[in-house]
Amino acid sequence: PGSDPDELLRGLNAQQRAAVVHAGSPLLIVAGAGSGKTRVLTHRIAYLLAARDVTPGQIMAITFTNKAAGEMRERVAGLVGPRGRRMWVSTFHSACVRILRAEHEHAGLKSTFSIYDADDSRRLMQLVARELDLDPKRYPARSLAAQVSNLKNELVDESTFTARASGPAERALAEAYSSYQQRLRQAHALDFDDLIMTTVRLLQTFPDVAEHYHRRFRHILVDEYQDTNHAQYVLIKELVGRSPEAPSDLDDVAASAPELLADGAPLGPAELCVVGDADQSIYAFRGATIRNIMEFERDFPDAETILLEQNYRSTQTILNAANRVIERNSERKPKNLWSDSGPGEKIVGYVADNEHDEADWVAKEIDRLVDDEGYKPADVAVFYRTNAQSRVFEDIFIRFGVPYKVVGGVRFYERKEVRDALAYLRAIANPDDVVSVRRILNTPRRGIGERAEACVDALASKENISFGAALERAGEAVGISSRAVKGIGDFTTIMAEVRQMAATEPPEDVLEAVLARSGYLAELEESDDPQDAGRVENLQELVSVAREYTERIQRAAAAGDADEDAGPDPEIEETPSLAGFLEQVALVADADEIPDDDGEQSGVVTMMTLHTAKGLEFPVVFLTGMEDGVFPHMRSMGDKRELEEERRLAYVGITRARQRLYISRAVTRSAWGQPQYNPESRFVPELPSELIDWKRTADAYTSWTRGGVGRGESAQYRGPSSALTNGPKSQALAGKLGLDPKLVGAASEMRQVPSLSPGDRVNHDRHGLGRVVAVQGSGPRAQAQIDFGDQTMWIVLRHAPIQKL
Ligand code: ATP
Ligand code: MG
């Protein structure tokens, strides 16, 4: 299957085809959402195998989520058959873990090193901050960990940073960074950012290791290139390798006579193909930089760029809406996306009383789509800005019987019992893993208190050994109670027993054994707390995850055996192991994993945050919580650059929709148990009003008032009738004071204020000339958001010395 190159090229447009067959120089494909970038990438891989004599082992494809990687592997397997499964199609992190496992000696690591996720890093940083006696108010562990992460994303290691740190804050950070790294080394652990940074350093320090991967990977393909950070960019550069004199000649040789390129012969750089869309860059907060896409041609000389302009995903209405929103961002290259799928349906809008009403409406609308319009629940996605927003939808969906799944959220792997169980496994695989060992040392209780832990810690520093090693010698610790020594003895005995078992048995058996022998499971089973029954189920689920892992590895090994043209591959796991399982879990748990469909034909509604939605598409999309302070997120509202990132997120959300797009917001929404009055999201008026069919507008709430801003002038409907909506602070205050803004509004006196609508030009006595971006409220409560060039602000019009021009 798929061995016919012409077949592969059919169903692609001319530019897509050019991108698939392009050879000999680095290739950048830039294009808007839904233009087939990912499709080009998969077809290119299949084409390399079918038409250019490339073997699966020579290809490394990088995507952003495990889900995307899984899909790409399946799609390629669909095109070329099971041998496609032997390719490295993975996230940056997984690719690095595989390299580090294979090269652990060069990297100075044990092969069983632990991988710390964000929560583990924070715990470790907490230990560090306490040890350094840093004031937790000025230097919260969370913030130290985030800053260290940023430095690593920039490939700034602890000694470099220490050398350049100035001022008390930076010096404190430098100290924390150094001590944190030391602790990681002692624990034989790497945090997520280390995975990339360590691999980069490995390739830079050991030319023979770099050479090995360089020889191996002749094709490197990267999806979502706009979201790469500096460290990832350097990693790609290292893998591609430097350009020798005549790269294209050598590539010809590689293609026609690979045997001439035995070890020792010089090799040209690997062929690099990246795809991306600067307008969809939404991970700046993790150090992603669109510089990488903007300067691709400078980074990789003789690179070629291909633009794709036809969108195959969405209706013209949805595309127009997306284009109009993203067009407001500065410093972007204009794009000319078009679709020939016709205008389609209008966007449907709804203004709800509160978040329950919003969820209620969404649920009813989904019902209607399924009953009357032939959609399946699986066709529908509900997006929101933050995970916490999912709960209300869940409540109502359960009540309405709408089948759904939540992607992300309080994820399976973040639950306490799952983390505890994994900590046990990690401590078995790697006894030096201090964060894991300390997590479960006294869980269930074994009489080992904080004091005993401190004594062991002191012994560890004195003897310069790991915490785990010090546990084995707990009897020598000064000041430790005999009860604690006994508890520690029990613990180390159990762990040693299970560790022995782990050498031969598959991870699911190891997990069951440790849950039983440690008494962890028994404690939950005997508890009468109803939550603990759920915890037991989650642990059962974890055992199933381990079993699935084992089966998957066995299947892959069998597929590998069947694949005759590929020799044995040391970097591909052949037997299930505890380390391999933990590695999979660590990587999956961090990324935005999407559970597989439950196999039912009609499937379930998918709920997820906008960040998770990237790269996906759904026939029907609900964009919910379209409120200033929710989306755009409150945190980003004061900063132009962050606001632009939120706008890109809106662009991502809108462009996920194929046929139907819904937008909704709630006039009040509770936060911290108090109702908040949120103004309409500033992104809503950026959508062309003629494309929206409002099923219910804010008029439902403001009909009791007279006059007001922009009344009847445009589709720009007035915001909630709140006296207190001029900014998040006062909203929170209104909530705290328990005021009903409607009453406050009714009591206040109407006065003449300028009637403004978005786009109007104004002059403000102090701020000068400006342009109205959005308006909110009416009468004395009318406010306008005005862009004065250097700053954008909300102004209460009643008080403002302002004239309409
Ligand atoms: P995003 O920027 O959101 O990641 P993308 O550019 O990667 O989008 P794809 O997901 O590859 O776009 O493609 C969007 C949709 O259009 C998919 O359903 C894909 O199968 C379809 N598509 C792409 N190219 C073609 C084509 N030439 N003919 C038919 N359908 C196509
Ligand atoms: Mg894509």
UniProtKB/TrEMBL annotation:
It catalyses: ATP + H2O = ADP + phosphate + H(+); Couples ATP hydrolysis with the unwinding of duplex DNA by translocating in the 3'-5' direction. It comes from the Bacteria. The keyword Metal-binding does not apply. SUPFAM superfamilies: P-loop containing nucleoside triphosphate hydrolases (SSF52540). GO terms for biological process: DNA replication; recombinational repair; response to radiation. This is ATP-dependent DNA helicase. The lineage of its organism: Bacteria, Bacillati, Actinomycetota, Actinomycetes, Micromonosporales. Residues 10-315 form the UvrD-like helicase ATP-binding domain. It is an enzyme of class 5 (isomerase). One of its GO terms (cellular component) is cytosol. GO terms for molecular function: 3'-5' DNA helicase activity; ATP binding; DNA binding; hydrolase activity. Belongs to the helicase family. UvrD subfamily. ATP binds at residues 31-38. Residues 316-615 form the UvrD-like helicase C-terminal domain. Keywords: ATP-binding, DNA-binding, Helicase, Hydrolase, Isomerase, Nucleotide-binding. InterPro entries: ATP-dep_DNA_helicase_PcrA, DExx_box_DNA_helicase_dom_sf, DNA_helicase_UvrD-like_C, DNA_helicase_UvrD/REP, P-loop_NTPase, UvrD-like_ATP-bd. Its EC number is 5.6.2.4.
